[in-house]
């Protein structure tokens, strides 16, 4: 019995490596979600620990927390609609970000009212 060792026939499909997928125009630039998550965490940290009664610092804090919440919306979209998954840690971070936004919004209103009262 002899083994037949011949080249593969022409009807055998060739294995092709697909070209690298390009990001869609509506997506953020390609990078790890961990990098974006770290930026979101740093923004939330800055926004939530600013303990100044200065209107400028409070407004910066407000916008940092707002940016952090927008990033949380993006991550929630990826988690639920792209990955079809549920992460209790991620959802708890989203809840904490919402609470930081509410508290920062209250603080901003209080500081703006106090500065308006001081100006009069």
Mean pLDDT: 75
In percent, how helical is the residue content? 55-70%
Topology, number of strands: 0
- Low-confidence region ranges: none
Calculate Rg over CA atoms. Answer: 26 Å
Q: Span from first to last CA?
A: 106 Å
Q: Report the order of strands and helices.
A: HHH
Shape: elongated
Pairing-aware structural class of the strands and helices? mainly alpha
Count of separate structural domains? 1
Q: How many helices does DSSP assign?
A: 3
User: How would a crystallographer describe the biggest sheet?
Assistant: none
Strand content: under 5%
Outline of the structure:
The chain has helices spanning 33-49, 55-82, 88-119. It has 120 residues and is mainly alpha-helical. The model has no long low-confidence stretch (mean pLDDT 75).
Kindly describe this structure.
- This protein has helices at 33-49, 55-82, 88-119.
- The chain is mainly α.
- The chain has one domain.
- Helix 2 (55-82) runs antiparallel to helix 3.
Notable traits:
single chain, 120 residues, mainly alpha, 3 helices, elongated
Ordered list of secondary-structure elements with their pairings:
Layout: H1 33-49, H2 55-82, H3 88-119
């Amino acid at each position: 019995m002899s083994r037949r060792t011949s080249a593969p026939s022409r009807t055998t499909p060739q294995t092709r490596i697909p070209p690298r997928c390009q990001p869609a125009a509506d997506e953020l630039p390609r990078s790890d979600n961990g990098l974006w998550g770290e930026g979101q965490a740093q923004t939330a940290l800055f926004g939530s620990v600013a303990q100044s009664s200065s209107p400028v610092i409070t407004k910066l804090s407000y916008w940092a927390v707002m940016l952090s919440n927008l990033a949380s919306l993006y991550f929630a979209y990826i988690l639920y609609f792209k990955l079809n998954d549920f992460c209790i840690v991620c959802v708890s971070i989203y809840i904490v970000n919402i609470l930081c936004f509410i508290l920062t919004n209250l603080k901003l209103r209080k500081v703006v009212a106090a500065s308006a009262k001081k100006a009069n």
